[in-house]
Amino acid sequence: MDDDFGADAALLEAMASADTAPPPRPKVTQPTPQRLDKAPPTSALSGSKPGVTQPTPQALAKPSGGSSILVSPRQRGNPVLTALKSIPWEYSDIPADYVLGLTTCALFLSLKYHRLHPEYIYTRIRNLQGKYNLRIVLTMVDIPNHEDPLRELSKTSLVNGVTLLLCWSAAEAARYLELYKAYENAAFTAIKGQQASTYADRLTDFVTVPRSLNKSDAIALVANFGSLRNAINAEQEALGMISGWGGTKVKRWVTAVEEPFRVKKTAKRGVRRDESTVGGGDRTDVLHEARPLARVPLREMSTTGAAKGAASTPAAKQYAVAGDVSDSENEEEAMMAAAMEESRRMAEDAQRKSQGEHGKNGEEASGSGLTDGVAAALAKLRDGS
């Protein structure tokens, strides 16, 4: 039996060694938590996965008003909508008739409708207060007598801070709406003038101020005379010898550089003059000496007025500069000087009038005395005869 199953001493010994109990498993112990005063070194974390970092919140861009014009349902059937072709539009529940951007809106008004319902536009403007920075009243001029309504609307636009735009057709009104929407996000540099930065550019801008003078003429002018000063003081014959400079250009250049600055400035501020003079002559030289009243020192006012009063009568030609003087002290000084001059002139007139009356009385007295003497002589002749 033992031989059939192959049981021998070696097998039994191996089985006996296999039946021994396995060694007990070691006890698992949790590590003691420790407080870290500073972050662990990077070398300790090099083998571990990096921690998850939260993304930094970003400010969202302000939503745009879209690429389409928002139209109020009140404008349904308006022929202006059929003329809007270059920019799409859509109906929306808005307080204005048209929204052309985040800060721009428009109200449509027909003068024919305004004549029947004058209170309509005032109610619509009142409802828009504080909602848009730019409020436009797009007015359709469709009546012949439009002067009075437009004058009234102009005053209303100034009081309520709205912009009044006039149009004479639906196509023109639609074009205004399309332009405002197209230039919604346009930069101000599109309408900002470019200022010259170099001396050559500034020199070219100065020379090309007179009409018909271009950049080539400016270069030729400076190249021939060497400097702008020599070009300004040059004679007309020398200017005519420049290539490309004809008689018209020479005349306009000479007129521009020889025109008096003072006369132009005074004329722009408004010069009023009386054409009547004592001798009937033209005193144009006074115009070149005209100065604003506030710029004349107070100590010179009386002497200047006395000298002019001795040379001419009050009927002489008068010049007055109608300019606004911002300096209050100069205005007060000028008013005081004018008051002193007026009082002095009135005193001279009164003195002159009194002297004239005395002379007339003396002549009357002498005339009456002569008449009495002649009468006495005639009486003696009668008695002697």
Secondary structure layout plus pairing:
Blueprint: H1 2-5, H2 9-18, H3 42-45, E1 69-71, H4 79-83, E2 89-91, E3 98-99, E4 104-110, H5 111-116, H6 120-127, E5 134-140, H7 147-160, E6 163-167, H8 170-182, H9 199-207, H10 215-225, H11 228-232, H12 236-240, H13 247-258, H14 261-269, E7 271-273, H15 285-288, H16 298-311, E8 319-321, H17 328-384
Parallel strand pairs: 1-2, 4-5, 5-6
Antiparallel strand pairs: 1-3, 3-4, 7-8
Helix pairs in contact: 9-10, 16-17
Family: Belongs to the ERCC1/RAD10/SWI10 family.
Pfam families: Rad10
GO cellular component, one term: nucleotide-excision repair factor 1 complex
Which characteristics define this entry?
ERCC1-like_central_dom, UIM_dom, elongated, two-stranded antiparallel ribbon, 49% helix, 385 residues, alpha/beta, 6-stranded mixed sheet, single-stranded DNA binding, 9% strand, 8 strands, Rossmann fold, DNA polymerase, domain 1, DNA repair
